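Retry 2 of 3 after timeout on previous attempt. Resubmitting structure tokens to design endpoint.
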């Protein structure tokens, strides 16, 4: 409050500056964490991309480093969670939502490829993802870091695009069964997306694109 004679207390602006400094410090700390996650993400993607060029018989060994690489990303997300959960979630979540989505995508693609389980084709639910990453899912009653439904669904649309590419490349490698497996998996996901009434514009556009992976991809028409 201003003084009785209309004088403004300089302490008001000192406190405002302190708030600005705290905000800048937090943003810088978050950026540093996310830069680390981005480097880790590139490494994970380089390992998982071997699925597009390595024959099925050699794939398990080729993908063996992916598990520890994905785990490094998850650890970094946990580090991020510990830092940002002290602050208003929706004030800052735009800084990391893409990174969370990319980490989820790496995890669910790795699981689908059999990095974690003996068989390929397993889909992690959003609760499974939360358990793997040891972070909450869709929290609405308090300000903590969490995985949102939108981040999970966007990661699924990215997975579908990756699998569409994998189907084509599998045929090139002489694997004619994987396109059929992918076709069924993608169609099941597409059916699930059709049930959803999506409000997020980006997610709605990306989910609309799934039909091209289902109906318009050359591997679908050729191998079914």
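Retry 2 succeeded. Sequence:
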């Amino acid at each position: 409050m201003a003084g009785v004679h209309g004088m403004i207390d300089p302490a008001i602006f000192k406190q405002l500056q302190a708030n600005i400094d705290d905000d800048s410090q937090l943003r810088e700390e978050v950026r540093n964490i996310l830069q680390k996650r981005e480097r880790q993400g590139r490494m994970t993607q380089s390992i998982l991309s071997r699925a597009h060029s390595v024959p099925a018989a050699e794939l398990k060994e080729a993908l063996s480093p992916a598990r520890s690489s994905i785990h490094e990303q998850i650890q970094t997300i946990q580090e991020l969670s510990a830092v940002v959960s002290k602050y208003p979630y929706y004030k800052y979540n735009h800084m990391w939502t893409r990174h969370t989505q990319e980490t989820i995508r790496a995890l669910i693609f790795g699981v689908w490829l059999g990095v974690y389980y003996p068989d390929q084709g397993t889909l992690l639910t959003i609760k499974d993802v939360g358990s793997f990453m040891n972070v909450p899912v869709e929290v609405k009653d308090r300000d903590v870091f969490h995985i949102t439904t939108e981040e999970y669904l966007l990661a699924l649309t990215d997975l579908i695009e990756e699998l569409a590419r994998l189907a084509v490349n599998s045929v090139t490698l002489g694997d004619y069964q994987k396109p059929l497996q992918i076709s069924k998996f993608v169609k099941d996901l597409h059916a699930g997306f059709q049930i959803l009434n999506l409000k997020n514009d980006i997610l709605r556009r990306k989910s609309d694109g799934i039909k091209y992976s289902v109906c318009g991809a050359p591997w679908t028409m050729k191998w079914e």
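Attempt log closed. Residues 218-224 have pLDDT under 50 and may be disordered.
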